[in-house]
Hints:
With about 210 residues, the protein is of the alpha+beta class. The protein is about 15% helix and about 30% strand. It contains three helices and 13 strands; from the N terminus they run H-E-E-H-E-E-E-H-E-E-E-E-E-E-E-E. It has helices spanning about 5-10, 30-45, 95-105; strands at about 15, 20-25, 60-65, 70-75, 75-80, 115-125, 130, 145-150, 155, 165-170, 175-180, 190, 205-210. The strands form three sheets. Strands 1-2-11-8-13-6-3 form a seven-stranded antiparallel sheet, covered by helices on one side. A hairpin with a 2-residue loop joins strand 4 and strand 5. The chain is globular, with a radius of gyration of 17 Å. It binds N-[(3-hydroxypyridin-2-yl)carbonyl]glycine and fe (iii) ion (FE). The site of fe (iii) ion (FE) has 3 residues, from loops. N-[(3-hydroxypyridin-2-yl)carbonyl]glycine binds near residues 188 and 190.
Amino acid sequence: MTTMDLFAAQPRDIPLAEGAVLLGGFALPDEAALLAAVEAVAAVAPFRHMETPNGFRMSAAMTNCGAAGWVTDRRGYRYDPLDPESGRPWPTMPSVFADLARRAASAAGYPDFAPDSALINFYEPGARMSAHQDMNEGDASAPIVSLSLGLPMTFLFGGLQRTDPMQRVPLAHGDVVVWGGPSRRAFHGVNPLKEGVHPLLGRRRINVTFRKAL
Length: 214
Ligand code: MD6
Ligand code: FE
């Protein structure tokens, strides 16, 4: 094996379904800058537990950056150019976010991905996200790029019907999942976060999903 082969090999790229791939460890080289970007966004637009249309509080706390942010309240789910808590635009998307999302999408076969929204989910032990489809984005031809930081979590990835079986995908710090095309409307969720302490993030998992929302 030559040196070139060593660099070409990416043994941690795992196809999940047609159009969906796990890029294992893709974000590790940028972990410090990505964490700093999360902190910078949260300093301006703090994490909050949003209310679902049914009146429940989400167990993951959320914030956003970019031209539009995903929000939920008693009126429903939508993308909003303004943070409802402050009435001001969401923070600008840090360039380290947009750059990572573009490179990951490209590695997964989706060139020229230009996200206009990043939803940041903050999980503490016990927090979860029940099975759902991502349906609020205007442009379903664009993929979604999903970055995991901190404690590991089990991602549940199903099919186009709620009743389809779900595969359990362990997601670790630095992993990136890209999905689009035939998988864009697949049901997915995350199991409750288990107790643990991550060396950089402590008792937390952060997930950032980059989308073309508008
Ligand atoms: C999470 N992720 O990983 C929740 N949606 O915390 C999502 O809901 C999600 O990871 C669309 C595409 C990728 C995702
Ligand atoms: Fe989702």
